[in-house]
């Protein structure tokens, strides 16, 4: 909503609605996918293999990582990977307690 000129929208009779949770699941899944991509160096391996090179990458396991909180949806999905620690940085301390394992 920060980038929407609400005054101009009102002048033009344009209805603006906030849907804060509309993309939460999709973004959470993308975050998890990128975490796996980076931890296992998938993109790097793919580029080398396509060039005909082969190099063995060990990578990391998510269960050995310390993970910062991006959203409750990411948190719930990450729990299945059993990470060593999930960090919560929520301005509302009572809310942060809900995320602790």
Give an overview in words.
There is one protein chain. The protein is mainly alpha-helical and 101 residues long. 45% of the residues lie in helices and 6% in strands. The chain has a single domain, classed as NAD(P)-binding Rossmann-like Domain (Rossmann fold). It is built from five helices and two strands, in the order αααβαβα. Strands 1-2 form a two-stranded parallel ribbon. Strand 1, helix 4 and strand 2 form a beta-alpha-beta unit. Helix 2 crosses helix 4. The two termini are 32 Å apart.
How many helix segments? 5
> How many individual β-strands?
2
Order of helices and strands: HHHEHEH
Please indicate the percent range of residues in DSSP E strands (runs of 2 or more): 5-15%
Distance between the termini: 32 Å
Give average pLDDT, whole number: 80
Helix/strand/pairing category = mainly alpha
Q: What is the CATH architecture assignment?
A: 3-Layer(aba) Sandwich
What's the CATH H-level homologous superfamily? NAD(P)-binding Rossmann-like Domain
- Largest sheet features: 2 strands, parallel
Q: Strand order, biggest sheet?
A: 1-2
> What do we call the CATH topology?
Rossmann fold
> Level of helix content?
40-55%
How many whole angstroms does the radius of gyration measure? 20 Å
What top-tier CATH class fits best?
Answer: Alpha Beta
From the spread of the alpha carbons, the general shape counts as flat
Low-confidence stretches: none
Query: Number of folding domains?
Result: 1
